[in-house]
């Protein structure tokens, strides 16, 4: 792991440098991005920086300086031999009193990179009883308040699955803890709209641009009849689902395979210079 913290690379990336009163640490007042690094270069950096700024605005934090973040990304990746990596940008409210009120001081900016194991070819998912609140102040924001995802993912792993799927408060399909979900019904690829409360995933957005995918909001029970199901995310790309709860599915199904081919062919376009 290599870590850039508030202006400089750390000699020891595991050193304790964040203040104990940092509002990101104490109350989850922060935003983040996870990017894929391919052959030492960040994938879709501009899209991730745009989403970071949007998440910060939604949370009421000033956006981190995009040029400074780019410099940090360059520094952390310089000279690193990394065929596949995960780069995380975290920006928090910085030091603050030990309550929900902000401190008003400078934020904390961290850019860290580590290697990433390739995703499994296919995976299992389970639906969880907890819901995404599409009317939450944090809906659609990538904040460091990810406790609900931690609980849901632990539940999924207990069931031998790698992802948990949430409905929203009105019972419609929403998303996974760290992925967007798509499925095929009647040969048509569908995915929940952003109104469902899901994150505007970068992978999801590219797939909507490159492929025939329809945004539909419908009950999560559609997963009982879908012909194919797949997850999309930075770390999974387009990953077929071979089991939803107890139901086995062909994975990757024929339509998912076609999307995977399109993804593989076009993804190189989105590695920023
Ligand atoms: C809650 C949530 N939904 C969806 C995604 C997928 O987004 P992306 O394709 O940008 O990785 C993520 C990514 O980490 C996420 O945390």
Characterization of this structure:
With 273 residues, this protein is α+β, with helices and mostly antiparallel strands. Helix content is 24%, strand content 31%. It has helices spanning 23-27, 45-59, 66-77, 147-158, 202-210, 254-266; strands at residues 2-5, 8-9, 30-38, 41-42, 84-92, 108-115, 122-132, 163-168, 173-176, 180-185, 188-191, 213-215, 228-233, 237-244, 247-248. Strands 7, 8, 9, 10, 11, 12, 13, 14 and 15 form a 9-stranded mixed β-sheet that branches. The protein has a 6-stranded antiparallel β-sheet with strand order 2-1-6-5-3-4. A hairpin with a 3-residue loop joins β13 (228-233) and β14 (237-244). The longest helix has 15 residues, at 45-59. The protein is globular. The mean pLDDT is 96. Bound molecules: pyridoxal-5'-phosphate. Pyridoxal-5'-phosphate binds next to α5 and β13.
What is the strand and helix layout of this fold?
Blueprint: E1 2-5, E2 8-9, H1 23-27, E3 30-38, E4 41-42, H2 45-59, H3 66-77, E5 84-92, E6 108-115, E7 122-132, H4 147-158, E8 163-168, E9 173-176, E10 180-185, E11 188-191, H5 202-210, E12 213-215, E13 228-233, E14 237-244, E15 247-248, H6 254-266
Parallel strand pairs: 7-8, 7-14, 11-12
Antiparallel strand pairs: 1-2, 1-6, 3-4, 3-5, 5-6, 8-9, 10-11, 10-13, 13-14, 14-15
The chain binds pyridoxal-5'-phosphate (PLP).
Residues 34, 175, 178-180, 199, 201-204, 232-234 line the site of pyridoxal-5'-phosphate (PLP).
User: What is the strand tally?
Assistant: 15
Q: How many angstroms separate the termini?
A: 22 Å
Which structural class best describes the helix and strand composition? alpha+beta
Integer average pLDDT: 96
Number of helices: 6
Instruction: Note the main sheet.
Output: 9 strands, mixed
Strand-residue fraction? 25-35%
């Amino acid at each position: 792991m290599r870590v850039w913290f508030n202006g400089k690379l750390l000699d020891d990336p595991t050193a304790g440098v964040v203040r104990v009163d940092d509002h990101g640490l104490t109350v989850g007042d922060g935003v983040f991005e996870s990017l894929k690094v391919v052959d030492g270069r960040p994938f879709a950096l501009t899209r991730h920086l745009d989403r970071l700024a949007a998440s910060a605005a939604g949370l009421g934090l000033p956006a981190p300086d995009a040029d400074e973040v780019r410099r940090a990304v360059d520094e952390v990746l310089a000279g690193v031999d990394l065929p596949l990596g995960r780069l995380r940008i975290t920006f928090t409210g910085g030091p603050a009193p030990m309550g929900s009120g902000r401190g008003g001081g400078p934020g904390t900016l961290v850019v860290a990179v580590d290697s990433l194991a390739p995703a499994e070819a296919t995976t299992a998912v389970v639906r969880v009883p907890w819901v995404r609140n599409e009317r939450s102040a944090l809906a659609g924001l990538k904040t460091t308040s990810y406790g609900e995802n931690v609980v849901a993912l632990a539940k999924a792993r207990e069931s031998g699955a790698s992802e948990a799927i949430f409905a929203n408060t009105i019972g419609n399909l929403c998303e996974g803890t760290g992925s967007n979900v798509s499925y095929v019904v009647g040969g048509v690829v569908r995915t929940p709209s952003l109104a469902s409360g899901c994150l505007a995933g970068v992978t999801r957005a590219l797939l909507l641009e490159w492929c025939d995918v329809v945004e539909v909001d419908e009950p999560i029970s559609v997963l009982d009849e879908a012909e194919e199901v797949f997850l999309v995310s930075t770390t999974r790309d387009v990953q077929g689902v071979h089991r939803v709860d107890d139901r086995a599915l062909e994975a990757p199904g024929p339509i998912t395979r076609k999307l995977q081919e399109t993804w593989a062919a076009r993804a190189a376009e989105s590695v920023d210079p």
